[in-house]
Design brief:
alpha/beta; Alkaline Phosphatase, subunit A; Arylsulfatase, C-terminal domain; 2 domains; four-stranded antiparallel β-sheet; 14 helices; about 30% helix; globular
Length: about 475
Protein backbone atom coordinates (compact mmCIF):
# COMPACT_ATOMS: atom_id res chain seq x y z
CA UNK A 1 0.00 0.00 0.00
CA UNK A 2 2.98 2.36 0.45
CA UNK A 3 3.66 2.20 -3.28
CA UNK A 4 0.04 3.15 -4.07
CA UNK A 5 0.09 6.08 -1.63
CA UNK A 6 3.28 7.34 -3.21
CA UNK A 7 1.63 7.08 -6.62
CA UNK A 8 -1.28 9.29 -5.51
CA UNK A 9 1.09 11.77 -3.83
CA UNK A 10 3.17 12.02 -6.98
CA UNK A 11 0.06 12.75 -9.05
CA UNK A 12 -0.90 15.52 -6.66
CA UNK A 13 2.54 17.10 -6.81
CA UNK A 14 2.55 17.14 -10.57
CA UNK A 15 -0.94 18.66 -10.63
CA UNK A 16 0.20 21.43 -8.28
CA UNK A 17 3.40 22.13 -10.20
CA UNK A 18 1.70 21.98 -13.58
CA UNK A 19 4.19 19.45 -14.96
CA UNK A 20 2.22 18.85 -18.16
CA UNK A 21 5.21 17.56 -20.12
CA UNK A 22 5.45 14.37 -18.09
CA UNK A 23 1.88 13.17 -18.59
CA UNK A 24 2.08 9.40 -19.01
CA UNK A 25 5.00 8.91 -16.65
CA UNK A 26 2.99 10.24 -13.74
CA UNK A 27 -0.69 10.02 -14.69
CA UNK A 28 -2.61 6.81 -15.31
CA UNK A 29 -4.68 6.15 -18.37
CA UNK A 30 -8.34 5.64 -17.44
CA UNK A 31 -10.86 3.31 -19.07
CA UNK A 32 -14.46 3.46 -17.86
CA UNK A 33 -16.56 0.47 -18.89
CA UNK A 34 -20.26 1.15 -18.33
CA UNK A 35 -22.63 -1.72 -19.06
CA UNK A 36 -26.32 -0.96 -19.61
CA UNK A 37 -28.89 -2.85 -17.48
CA UNK A 38 -26.27 -5.31 -16.21
CA UNK A 39 -27.64 -6.97 -13.08
CA UNK A 40 -25.81 -7.25 -9.76
CA UNK A 41 -25.20 -11.01 -10.01
CA UNK A 42 -24.83 -11.34 -13.78
CA UNK A 43 -21.20 -12.45 -13.66
CA UNK A 44 -19.15 -15.30 -12.30
CA UNK A 45 -17.32 -13.10 -9.79
CA UNK A 46 -20.73 -12.17 -8.35
CA UNK A 47 -21.65 -15.80 -7.86
CA UNK A 48 -23.42 -16.71 -11.09
CA UNK A 49 -22.87 -20.13 -12.61
CA UNK A 50 -24.97 -19.32 -15.67
CA UNK A 51 -22.89 -16.57 -17.27
CA UNK A 52 -19.47 -17.34 -18.71
CA UNK A 53 -17.43 -14.26 -17.73
CA UNK A 54 -13.72 -15.13 -17.46
CA UNK A 55 -12.55 -11.62 -18.36
CA UNK A 56 -14.82 -9.95 -15.81
CA UNK A 57 -13.75 -12.50 -13.22
CA UNK A 58 -10.08 -11.85 -13.93
CA UNK A 59 -10.63 -8.10 -13.68
CA UNK A 60 -12.34 -8.58 -10.31
CA UNK A 61 -9.45 -10.76 -9.12
CA UNK A 62 -6.88 -8.19 -10.25
CA UNK A 63 -8.93 -5.25 -9.02
CA UNK A 64 -10.82 -3.94 -6.01
CA UNK A 65 -14.45 -5.02 -5.83
CA UNK A 66 -17.23 -2.96 -4.27
CA UNK A 67 -20.03 -5.07 -2.83
CA UNK A 68 -22.39 -2.20 -1.93
CA UNK A 69 -22.14 -0.08 -5.08
CA UNK A 70 -25.21 1.80 -6.28
CA UNK A 71 -26.20 3.55 -9.45
CA UNK A 72 -27.66 6.97 -8.71
CA UNK A 73 -31.06 5.92 -10.03
CA UNK A 74 -32.88 2.72 -11.01
CA UNK A 75 -32.74 3.62 -14.71
CA UNK A 76 -30.18 4.95 -17.12
CA UNK A 77 -30.41 8.68 -17.96
CA UNK A 78 -30.36 10.01 -14.38
CA UNK A 79 -27.43 7.75 -13.52
CA UNK A 80 -25.47 8.95 -16.55
CA UNK A 81 -26.22 12.55 -15.62
CA UNK A 82 -24.99 11.92 -12.07
CA UNK A 83 -21.85 10.29 -13.41
CA UNK A 84 -21.01 13.20 -15.70
CA UNK A 85 -21.95 15.98 -13.26
CA UNK A 86 -21.02 14.43 -9.91
CA UNK A 87 -24.41 15.56 -8.65
CA UNK A 88 -27.66 13.99 -7.52
CA UNK A 89 -30.78 14.18 -9.69
CA UNK A 90 -32.41 17.20 -7.97
CA UNK A 91 -29.49 19.33 -9.19
CA UNK A 92 -29.51 18.08 -12.80
CA UNK A 93 -33.30 17.83 -13.20
CA UNK A 94 -32.88 14.43 -14.86
CA UNK A 95 -34.98 11.99 -12.84
CA UNK A 96 -36.05 9.35 -15.32
CA UNK A 97 -36.18 8.45 -19.03
CA UNK A 98 -38.68 10.38 -21.14
CA UNK A 99 -41.96 11.35 -19.57
CA UNK A 100 -42.40 10.91 -15.81
CA UNK A 101 -46.09 10.19 -16.37
CA UNK A 102 -45.79 6.51 -17.18
CA UNK A 103 -48.49 3.92 -16.72
CA UNK A 104 -52.25 4.14 -16.29
CA UNK A 105 -53.39 7.68 -15.38
CA UNK A 106 -56.17 6.28 -13.16
CA UNK A 107 -53.53 4.64 -10.97
CA UNK A 108 -51.32 7.74 -10.59
CA UNK A 109 -52.39 9.67 -7.48
CA UNK A 110 -49.87 12.48 -8.02
CA UNK A 111 -48.72 14.73 -10.83
CA UNK A 112 -45.02 13.83 -11.10
CA UNK A 113 -42.21 16.38 -11.26
CA UNK A 114 -41.23 17.53 -14.76
CA UNK A 115 -38.21 15.73 -16.19
CA UNK A 116 -35.32 16.91 -18.37
CA UNK A 117 -33.71 14.60 -20.90
CA UNK A 118 -30.61 16.69 -21.57
CA UNK A 119 -27.64 17.46 -19.36
CA UNK A 120 -27.45 21.25 -19.33
CA UNK A 121 -24.37 22.77 -20.94
CA UNK A 122 -23.73 24.81 -17.79
CA UNK A 123 -22.34 21.72 -16.03
CA UNK A 124 -18.59 21.18 -16.10
CA UNK A 125 -18.55 17.47 -16.82
CA UNK A 126 -16.18 14.82 -15.56
CA UNK A 127 -14.80 14.50 -19.09
CA UNK A 128 -14.15 18.25 -19.29
CA UNK A 129 -12.25 18.19 -16.01
CA UNK A 130 -10.22 15.13 -17.03
CA UNK A 131 -9.42 16.77 -20.36
CA UNK A 132 -8.28 19.90 -18.51
CA UNK A 133 -5.90 17.68 -16.55
CA UNK A 134 -4.09 16.90 -19.80
CA UNK A 135 -5.89 13.85 -21.18
CA UNK A 136 -7.00 12.76 -24.62
CA UNK A 137 -10.68 11.86 -24.25
CA UNK A 138 -12.95 9.54 -26.20
CA UNK A 139 -16.55 8.43 -25.82
CA UNK A 140 -18.01 5.32 -27.43
CA UNK A 141 -21.48 3.83 -27.14
CA UNK A 142 -24.61 5.02 -25.37
CA UNK A 143 -24.77 8.66 -24.24
CA UNK A 144 -28.50 9.42 -23.71
CA UNK A 145 -27.99 12.96 -22.35
CA UNK A 146 -28.54 15.08 -25.45
CA UNK A 147 -27.05 15.36 -28.91
CA UNK A 148 -25.15 17.66 -31.21
CA UNK A 149 -24.61 21.19 -29.96
CA UNK A 150 -27.15 20.82 -27.15
CA UNK A 151 -25.36 18.30 -25.00
CA UNK A 152 -23.69 15.57 -27.07
CA UNK A 153 -20.32 14.07 -26.07
CA UNK A 154 -18.33 16.41 -28.31
CA UNK A 155 -19.75 19.42 -26.48
CA UNK A 156 -19.25 17.89 -23.03
CA UNK A 157 -15.52 17.23 -22.94
CA UNK A 158 -14.79 14.41 -25.38
CA UNK A 159 -12.44 14.73 -28.35
CA UNK A 160 -14.03 11.73 -30.07
CA UNK A 161 -17.60 10.43 -30.14
CA UNK A 162 -18.50 7.13 -31.75
CA UNK A 163 -22.08 6.00 -31.26
CA UNK A 164 -23.22 8.51 -28.66
CA UNK A 165 -26.51 10.34 -29.25
CA UNK A 166 -29.79 11.14 -27.50
CA UNK A 167 -31.27 7.63 -27.75
CA UNK A 168 -31.51 5.21 -24.85
CA UNK A 169 -31.43 2.04 -26.93
CA UNK A 170 -29.98 1.15 -30.35
CA UNK A 171 -32.60 2.32 -32.84
CA UNK A 172 -31.66 -0.26 -35.44
CA UNK A 173 -31.07 -2.97 -32.87
CA UNK A 174 -27.76 -4.58 -31.96
CA UNK A 175 -26.90 -5.55 -35.53
CA UNK A 176 -25.84 -3.37 -38.46
CA UNK A 177 -27.39 -1.30 -39.98
CA UNK A 178 -27.48 0.64 -36.72
CA UNK A 179 -29.50 3.75 -37.71
CA UNK A 180 -27.06 5.80 -35.64
CA UNK A 181 -25.87 9.14 -37.03
CA UNK A 182 -22.64 8.97 -35.04
CA UNK A 183 -21.72 5.40 -35.97
CA UNK A 184 -21.14 4.27 -39.54
CA UNK A 185 -22.86 1.02 -40.47
CA UNK A 186 -20.70 -2.05 -40.74
CA UNK A 187 -21.20 -5.23 -42.71
CA UNK A 188 -24.66 -6.76 -42.45
CA UNK A 189 -25.13 -8.58 -39.14
CA UNK A 190 -22.07 -6.97 -37.53
CA UNK A 191 -22.75 -7.02 -33.78
CA UNK A 192 -22.78 -3.66 -32.01
CA UNK A 193 -20.88 -4.77 -28.90
CA UNK A 194 -18.10 -6.20 -31.04
CA UNK A 195 -18.00 -3.11 -33.25
CA UNK A 196 -17.72 -0.69 -30.32
CA UNK A 197 -14.91 -2.85 -28.98
CA UNK A 198 -13.12 -2.60 -32.34
CA UNK A 199 -13.42 1.18 -32.15
CA UNK A 200 -12.14 1.26 -28.58
CA UNK A 201 -9.11 -0.83 -29.48
CA UNK A 202 -8.41 1.38 -32.49
CA UNK A 203 -8.41 4.39 -30.17
CA UNK A 204 -6.08 2.68 -27.69
CA UNK A 205 -3.70 1.78 -30.50
CA UNK A 206 -3.43 5.43 -31.59
CA UNK A 207 -2.34 6.58 -28.13
CA UNK A 208 1.25 7.08 -27.08
CA UNK A 209 3.18 7.12 -23.82
CA UNK A 210 3.59 10.90 -24.06
CA UNK A 211 0.05 11.77 -23.02
CA UNK A 212 -2.55 9.90 -20.96
CA UNK A 213 -6.00 9.04 -22.27
CA UNK A 214 -9.48 8.68 -20.87
CA UNK A 215 -11.79 6.29 -22.70
CA UNK A 216 -15.43 5.80 -21.74
CA UNK A 217 -16.90 2.74 -23.41
CA UNK A 218 -20.62 2.73 -22.61
CA UNK A 219 -22.00 -0.37 -24.24
CA UNK A 220 -25.60 -0.38 -25.46
CA UNK A 221 -25.57 -3.98 -24.26
CA UNK A 222 -27.22 -5.51 -22.39
CA UNK A 223 -30.18 -3.18 -22.94
CA UNK A 224 -33.19 -4.23 -24.98
CA UNK A 225 -33.79 -5.38 -27.61
CA UNK A 226 -32.45 -8.68 -26.31
CA UNK A 227 -30.39 -9.76 -29.33
CA UNK A 228 -27.14 -11.65 -29.84
CA UNK A 229 -25.34 -13.70 -32.51
CA UNK A 230 -26.83 -17.16 -32.97
CA UNK A 231 -23.47 -18.87 -32.45
CA UNK A 232 -23.28 -17.50 -28.91
CA UNK A 233 -26.94 -18.11 -28.12
CA UNK A 234 -26.36 -21.79 -28.92
CA UNK A 235 -23.68 -21.89 -26.23
CA UNK A 236 -26.25 -20.79 -23.63
CA UNK A 237 -28.92 -23.14 -24.90
CA UNK A 238 -26.81 -25.90 -23.37
CA UNK A 239 -26.09 -24.24 -20.02
CA UNK A 240 -27.84 -25.14 -16.78
CA UNK A 241 -30.44 -22.47 -16.06
CA UNK A 242 -32.35 -21.62 -12.91
CA UNK A 243 -35.43 -19.58 -12.03
CA UNK A 244 -33.42 -16.35 -11.94
CA UNK A 245 -31.13 -16.67 -14.95
CA UNK A 246 -32.45 -18.66 -17.89
CA UNK A 247 -32.44 -16.45 -20.99
CA UNK A 248 -29.90 -17.76 -23.54
CA UNK A 249 -30.00 -14.60 -25.66
CA UNK A 250 -29.40 -12.35 -22.68
CA UNK A 251 -26.63 -14.71 -21.58
CA UNK A 252 -25.04 -14.35 -25.00
CA UNK A 253 -25.20 -10.54 -24.68
CA UNK A 254 -23.32 -10.70 -21.36
CA UNK A 255 -20.86 -13.08 -23.02
CA UNK A 256 -20.02 -10.58 -25.77
CA UNK A 257 -19.46 -7.84 -23.21
CA UNK A 258 -17.05 -10.19 -21.45
CA UNK A 259 -15.29 -10.85 -24.76
CA UNK A 260 -15.05 -7.08 -25.18
CA UNK A 261 -13.29 -6.70 -21.84
CA UNK A 262 -10.88 -9.51 -22.72
CA UNK A 263 -9.95 -7.88 -26.01
CA UNK A 264 -9.48 -4.45 -24.42
CA UNK A 265 -7.23 -5.83 -21.69
CA UNK A 266 -5.18 -7.62 -24.35
CA UNK A 267 -4.88 -4.39 -26.34
CA UNK A 268 -3.64 -2.56 -23.25
CA UNK A 269 -1.02 -5.23 -22.65
CA UNK A 270 0.18 -5.20 -26.25
CA UNK A 271 0.63 -1.42 -26.10
CA UNK A 272 2.41 -1.61 -22.76
CA UNK A 273 -0.37 0.33 -21.03
CA UNK A 274 -1.55 -2.43 -18.69
CA UNK A 275 0.75 -1.36 -15.83
CA UNK A 276 -0.41 2.26 -15.88
CA UNK A 277 -4.15 2.12 -16.57
CA UNK A 278 -7.10 2.39 -14.22
CA UNK A 279 -10.01 0.24 -15.43
CA UNK A 280 -13.50 0.72 -13.98
CA UNK A 281 -16.32 -1.74 -14.64
CA UNK A 282 -19.89 -1.11 -13.50
CA UNK A 283 -23.53 -0.80 -14.59
CA UNK A 284 -25.97 2.11 -14.92
CA UNK A 285 -28.75 0.33 -12.98
CA UNK A 286 -30.11 -3.07 -12.07
CA UNK A 287 -30.92 -5.84 -14.50
CA UNK A 288 -33.84 -5.84 -16.92
CA UNK A 289 -36.53 -7.82 -15.08
CA UNK A 290 -37.93 -9.96 -17.90
CA UNK A 291 -34.42 -11.20 -18.77
CA UNK A 292 -32.58 -11.50 -15.46
CA UNK A 293 -32.96 -11.36 -11.70
CA UNK A 294 -30.37 -11.12 -8.93
CA UNK A 295 -31.22 -14.14 -6.74
CA UNK A 296 -30.21 -12.36 -3.53
CA UNK A 297 -32.02 -9.07 -4.19
CA UNK A 298 -35.58 -7.83 -4.43
CA UNK A 299 -36.70 -6.16 -7.64
CA UNK A 300 -35.02 -5.19 -10.90
CA UNK A 301 -34.39 -2.19 -13.13
CA UNK A 302 -36.73 0.71 -12.40
CA UNK A 303 -37.62 -0.36 -8.86
CA UNK A 304 -36.80 1.30 -5.51
CA UNK A 305 -35.46 -1.93 -4.03
CA UNK A 306 -31.89 -3.24 -4.15
CA UNK A 307 -32.41 -4.99 -7.47
CA UNK A 308 -33.17 -1.61 -9.02
CA UNK A 309 -29.83 0.04 -8.45
CA UNK A 310 -27.34 -2.13 -6.59
CA UNK A 311 -24.75 -2.80 -9.28
CA UNK A 312 -21.50 -4.71 -9.84
CA UNK A 313 -18.41 -2.53 -9.54
CA UNK A 314 -14.70 -3.19 -9.93
CA UNK A 315 -11.79 -0.75 -10.02
CA UNK A 316 -8.54 -2.21 -11.26
CA UNK A 317 -5.64 0.03 -10.28
CA UNK A 318 -2.28 0.43 -12.04
CA UNK A 319 -0.07 -2.60 -11.57
CA UNK A 320 -3.02 -4.37 -9.87
CA UNK A 321 -2.49 -2.49 -6.62
CA UNK A 322 -4.95 -3.57 -3.94
CA UNK A 323 -5.96 -6.62 -5.98
CA UNK A 324 -8.50 -8.99 -4.50
CA UNK A 325 -9.90 -6.59 -1.91
CA UNK A 326 -13.64 -6.43 -1.21
CA UNK A 327 -15.05 -3.10 -0.02
CA UNK A 328 -18.44 -3.03 1.69
CA UNK A 329 -18.73 0.74 2.10
CA UNK A 330 -21.80 2.00 0.18
CA UNK A 331 -20.72 4.04 -2.85
CA UNK A 332 -22.64 5.82 -5.59
CA UNK A 333 -22.29 6.96 -9.20
CA UNK A 334 -21.69 10.54 -8.05
CA UNK A 335 -18.41 9.37 -6.49
CA UNK A 336 -16.70 8.65 -9.81
CA UNK A 337 -16.19 12.31 -10.71
CA UNK A 338 -14.07 13.27 -7.66
CA UNK A 339 -12.35 9.88 -7.67
CA UNK A 340 -11.17 9.99 -11.27
CA UNK A 341 -10.21 13.65 -11.04
CA UNK A 342 -8.00 12.89 -8.05
CA UNK A 343 -6.43 9.94 -9.84
CA UNK A 344 -5.87 12.12 -12.92
CA UNK A 345 -4.17 14.83 -10.89
CA UNK A 346 -6.85 17.34 -11.86
CA UNK A 347 -9.19 19.53 -9.87
CA UNK A 348 -12.92 19.74 -9.32
CA UNK A 349 -14.76 22.78 -10.70
CA UNK A 350 -14.57 25.49 -8.06
CA UNK A 351 -18.10 26.81 -8.64
CA UNK A 352 -19.91 23.47 -9.02
CA UNK A 353 -21.31 21.53 -6.08
CA UNK A 354 -19.85 18.06 -5.68
CA UNK A 355 -22.29 15.58 -4.14
CA UNK A 356 -19.89 12.66 -4.52
CA UNK A 357 -16.80 11.80 -2.50
CA UNK A 358 -13.46 10.62 -3.77
CA UNK A 359 -12.99 6.90 -3.22
CA UNK A 360 -9.20 7.21 -3.20
CA UNK A 361 -9.01 6.74 0.60
CA UNK A 362 -10.89 3.45 0.17
CA UNK A 363 -8.62 2.43 -2.68
CA UNK A 364 -5.64 3.15 -0.46
CA UNK A 365 -7.13 1.04 2.34
CA UNK A 366 -6.98 4.01 4.69
CA UNK A 367 -9.50 5.27 7.23
CA UNK A 368 -10.00 8.70 5.70
CA UNK A 369 -13.31 8.02 3.99
CA UNK A 370 -16.31 9.37 5.87
CA UNK A 371 -19.89 9.90 4.73
CA UNK A 372 -23.11 9.77 6.65
CA UNK A 373 -25.42 8.49 3.90
CA UNK A 374 -26.24 8.21 0.22
CA UNK A 375 -29.56 9.35 -1.24
CA UNK A 376 -31.97 8.59 -4.06
CA UNK A 377 -34.79 10.76 -5.39
CA UNK A 378 -37.25 9.55 -8.01
CA UNK A 379 -40.38 11.78 -8.23
CA UNK A 380 -41.74 9.93 -11.28
CA UNK A 381 -43.73 6.85 -12.31
CA UNK A 382 -42.53 3.72 -14.09
CA UNK A 383 -45.16 1.41 -15.49
CA UNK A 384 -45.15 -2.34 -14.78
CA UNK A 385 -43.23 -4.75 -16.93
CA UNK A 386 -45.38 -6.56 -19.48
CA UNK A 387 -47.30 -9.30 -17.72
CA UNK A 388 -47.15 -7.64 -14.31
CA UNK A 389 -49.77 -5.55 -12.51
CA UNK A 390 -47.34 -4.01 -10.01
CA UNK A 391 -45.74 -0.62 -10.53
CA UNK A 392 -42.02 -0.69 -11.03
CA UNK A 393 -41.90 2.66 -9.27
CA UNK A 394 -44.24 5.30 -7.96
CA UNK A 395 -42.68 8.60 -6.78
CA UNK A 396 -40.29 7.95 -3.90
CA UNK A 397 -37.14 8.99 -2.10
CA UNK A 398 -34.75 6.80 -0.15
CA UNK A 399 -31.65 6.88 2.00
CA UNK A 400 -28.95 4.31 2.74
CA UNK A 401 -27.24 4.97 6.07
CA UNK A 402 -24.89 2.39 7.49
CA UNK A 403 -26.66 -0.95 7.17
CA UNK A 404 -30.18 0.50 7.01
CA UNK A 405 -32.27 1.68 4.08
CA UNK A 406 -35.42 3.78 4.36
CA UNK A 407 -37.85 4.34 1.48
CA UNK A 408 -40.61 6.94 1.48
CA UNK A 409 -43.30 6.61 -1.17
CA UNK A 410 -44.79 10.02 -1.79
CA UNK A 411 -48.34 9.08 -2.79
CA UNK A 412 -49.49 8.29 0.75
CA UNK A 413 -46.28 8.79 2.76
CA UNK A 414 -45.63 5.06 3.08
CA UNK A 415 -42.38 4.25 4.92
CA UNK A 416 -40.36 1.06 4.59
CA UNK A 417 -37.21 0.36 6.59
CA UNK A 418 -34.88 -2.56 5.93
CA UNK A 419 -31.79 -3.89 7.67
CA UNK A 420 -29.67 -4.88 4.68
CA UNK A 421 -27.21 -6.85 6.78
CA UNK A 422 -30.00 -9.12 8.02
CA UNK A 423 -32.50 -8.83 5.17
CA UNK A 424 -30.78 -8.06 1.87
CA UNK A 425 -33.84 -9.21 -0.05
CA UNK A 426 -35.97 -6.59 1.76
CA UNK A 427 -38.71 -8.94 2.83
CA UNK A 428 -39.57 -7.44 6.24
CA UNK A 429 -40.46 -3.79 6.83
CA UNK A 430 -39.11 -2.91 10.29
CA UNK A 431 -40.10 0.78 10.31
CA UNK A 432 -42.25 0.29 13.43
CA UNK A 433 -39.98 -2.29 15.04
CA UNK A 434 -37.08 0.19 15.04
CA UNK A 435 -38.77 3.61 15.21
CA UNK A 436 -35.64 5.40 16.48
CA UNK A 437 -33.70 4.31 13.40
CA UNK A 438 -36.64 5.15 11.15
CA UNK A 439 -36.76 8.63 12.69
CA UNK A 440 -32.99 9.14 12.34
CA UNK A 441 -32.97 8.23 8.64
CA UNK A 442 -36.18 10.11 7.90
CA UNK A 443 -34.86 13.30 9.50
CA UNK A 444 -31.59 13.07 7.55
CA UNK A 445 -33.45 12.47 4.29
CA UNK A 446 -35.63 15.54 4.86
CA UNK A 447 -32.52 17.60 5.57
CA UNK A 448 -30.95 16.39 2.33
CA UNK A 449 -34.05 17.33 0.35
CA UNK A 450 -33.81 20.82 1.75
CA UNK A 451 -30.09 21.00 0.98
CA UNK A 452 -30.62 19.99 -2.64
CA UNK A 453 -34.02 21.66 -3.23
CA UNK A 454 -35.35 18.23 -4.14
CA UNK A 455 -38.93 18.63 -5.41
CA UNK A 456 -41.58 16.33 -3.95
CA UNK A 457 -44.80 15.94 -5.96
CA UNK A 458 -47.89 17.09 -4.08
CA UNK A 459 -50.42 18.02 -6.79
CA UNK A 460 -53.22 15.48 -7.01
CA UNK A 461 -54.14 13.88 -10.31
CA UNK A 462 -57.86 14.41 -11.00
CA UNK A 463 -57.95 11.22 -13.05
CA UNK A 464 -56.89 9.08 -10.09
CA UNK A 465 -59.25 6.31 -9.03
CA UNK A 466 -59.22 5.89 -5.21
CA UNK A 467 -59.97 2.20 -5.63
CA UNK A 468 -56.27 1.77 -6.45
CA UNK A 469 -55.15 3.09 -3.05
CA UNK A 470 -52.95 0.65 -1.10
CA UNK A 471 -53.75 -0.49 2.42
CA UNK A 472 -51.82 -1.71 5.42
CA UNK A 473 -48.92 0.70 5.13
CA UNK A 474 -46.85 2.59 7.72
CA UNK A 475 -46.56 6.40 7.75
CA UNK A 476 -44.54 8.92 9.74
CA UNK A 477 -47.53 9.45 12.04
CA UNK A 478 -47.41 5.75 12.95
CA UNK A 479 -43.69 6.01 13.73
CA UNK A 480 -44.20 9.13 15.84
CA UNK A 481 -46.93 7.36 17.83
CA UNK A 482 -44.60 4.41 18.41
CA UNK A 483 -41.88 6.73 19.68
CA UNK A 484 -44.30 8.32 22.14
CA UNK A 485 -45.36 4.88 23.40
CA UNK A 486 -41.74 4.07 24.15
Amino acid sequence: MKHFSSFITLLSLYAINGAAATYAADKPNIIFLLIDDWGWQDAGFMGSKYYDTPAMDALALDGIRFNDAYSSAPNCAPTRAALMSGQYAPRTGIYTVGTPERGNAQERRLIPIANSGVLDMSFVTMAESIKAAGYNTAFMGKWHLGAGETGGPLTQGYDINIGGNHTGSPRGGHFSPYENETLMDGPDDEYLTDRLTDEAISFINTQSASKPFYLQLSHYAVHTPIQAPERTIKKYNNRTADEYNNNPTYGAMVDHVDQSISRIMTALSEKGFDKNTVVILTSDNGGYGPATQAPDLRGAKGMPYEGGNRVPMVIRMPDNQGSGRLIKEPVNSVDFYPTLIELAGGSMPSNQIADGKSLVPLLEDENGFERDAIFFHFPAYLQPYVGSTTWRATPYGSIRMERFKLIEFFEFGQLELYDLDQDLKETTNIALDKPEITAKLYKRMLEWREETDAPVPTLLNVEYDPNFAPDGYITWSDVEAKLVDR
